[in-house]
Amino acid sequence: MTHRKDYYPSRQAPGPQMLERVDPVVHAAEPAAAPVDPALVERYDREGFLMLDGLFEPGEVEVMREELERLRAEADAAQGDELIREPGSEVLRSIFRVHRVSPVFARLASDARLVRLAEHILGDRVYVHQSRLNYKPGFFGKEFYWHSDFETWHVEDGMPRMRALSVSISLLENTPWNGPLMLVPGSQRRYVACVGETPEDHFRQSLRKQEYGVPDPASLARLVDEGGITTATGPAGSTVFFDCNTMHGSNGNITPAPRSNVFIVYNAVSNRVGAPYGPREPRPDFLAERADFTPLNAIEGRIHRPRSAA
Amino acid sequence: MTHRKDYYPSRQAPGPQMLERVDPVVHAAEPAAAPVDPALVERYDREGFLMLDGLFEPGEVEVMREELERLRAEADAAQGDELIREPGSEVLRSIFRVHRVSPVFARLASDARLVRLAEHILGDRVYVHQSRLNYKPGFFGKEFYWHSDFETWHVEDGMPRMRALSVSISLLENTPWNGPLMLVPGSQRRYVACVGETPEDHFRQSLRKQEYGVPDPASLARLVDEGGITTATGPAGSTVFFDCNTMHGSNGNITPAPRSNVFIVYNAVSNRVGAPYGPREPRPDFLAERADFTPLNAIEGRIHRPRSAA
Q1: What confidence tens digit (pLDDT) does each residue in A19-44 have?
Q2: ipTM of the complex
Q3: pTM (predicted TM-score)
Q4: Is the minimum CB–CB distance between B229 and chain A shorter than 8 Å?
Q5: Which residue among B220, B231, B254 sits closest to A251, beta carbon to beta carbon?
Q6: For chain B, which end, N or C, has fewer CB atoms within 10 Å of the first or last residue's CB respectively?
Q7: How far apart are CA B63 and CA B105, in angstroms?
Q8: Structural fold of domain A27-284
Q9: How far apart are CA B69 and CA B59, in angstroms?
Q10: Which residues face B130 on adjacent strands?
Q11: Is B244 helix (H, G, I), strand (E, B) or coil?
């Protein structure tokens, strides 16, 4: 193994540590060239996320929701590592790699409204590091504990630097009480190095219930003291861009209303993953693209129902 | 056993049923004699609950919070059926019967601001059926699933009719994201009869995680479709009066901010408990007063720190 500097060590020290971020949040060379109001990008820089309503038309959201239901019906009859179920109830929680298996979500991943803003923020062309559908069922949807995505992507997938972001698009209404995404403004500037070691095959458990790579309570309390909590609530179609290191999580959901979101993770092509920074083998391809770093070509226009649909 | 009519049978039929309430929600003979704006009582009648801010002064809330911390510190070193801990973590979740063990909460239970409104709504003098402190710790507070209190009090404690109410006073801020009380407006008019039988010693489990006497998803979805969900958020000291049959619950809490509330349940003296309507022995005294139905004498004035405190 060649020697690489690890700017963001984690799961190595016996106690938690809070490190400063060494990478910019917004990598754009020309702020004025933003595909949205530059003030929104400044806000993203400051808070670590940006909520955009109305980016997609209701008809487009409907097409995505139909596709979600189709994939869910297929998944009910299927087995596969890409299908993650709720602890306890075995109800479907996530489907990964949807941009590879669904023409609708492949089209979404290349959508110019997402790709151009991702390219601007990351200051580079981009590829999809991960994609997934999350279902939070009504009545018994479980919480998703606080985490920085980057911590896992760095330690377990080998992502070198903080130059990636997630886009989450809600496919159903997100209310304050059905377990919406919670984000900690400003947390993207701190790196909470976690305690302990990564067990073998950690991903099988962590996607159901995170127990390693978990930030410690004191660091979380400090981040929330400094930045507070913002909840991503809004109608179906609401879109959130958030930095790879923004601390986020969600509470459980006992309400009857399910919550469904599609996530696309864009990584700068210059930041492609290599060997993991942790001691284990890399996670499988459905969680982290390891072979195809071809930059996406942005597709203009609206998202339509695929022609092949009956 | 003498024959009694059971107006609210539950846990008997093989399938769930939704029955109409046969009792009034507001039993007051003279609506104009309300100790608060009669429009508020009309609202309670319609929605099944009433939120009142500013009923207690900040100094009074502080006295209650100090008492809560004192009782919690005592409880950490103690064992007892009255102390209920979180499933999994063993962190303290509830202390019951606080109006019998704490001078501050005994005083609170007799407070004229609570007793007079309870007497008005219930149209009778009142006694304390149950009291408790609920702690929802930060980071890993678990959800409390939807339930009607009356269903349990009827089946397991032998409360004959719907002529009781709860008062919940928040001792810390309740935000939308730290697992606040959620109530379903209008649900007090429907009785969701639950499926199945009550196991022996059910209370030992049900206080940690409710699995019997649980309303079915279809009935819950119907109640929420009809009435929506209202969240009891607000500063420390916010007070909610809610009917014994109002459907309520709360989500978990992964935020750093804990949530603590004191609950006092008032029952009309004419509605004192008898033999349970279910097949089991009654629950113990700390959960349901079975011996002392003496009506409370309302105490006027503010709540002060007890003189004996150091």
Answers
A1: 999 999 999 999 999 999 999 999 99
A2: 0.84
A3: 0.87
A4: yes
A5: B254
A6: C
A7: 10
A8: Jelly Rolls (2.60.120)
A9: 15
A10: B265
A11: coil
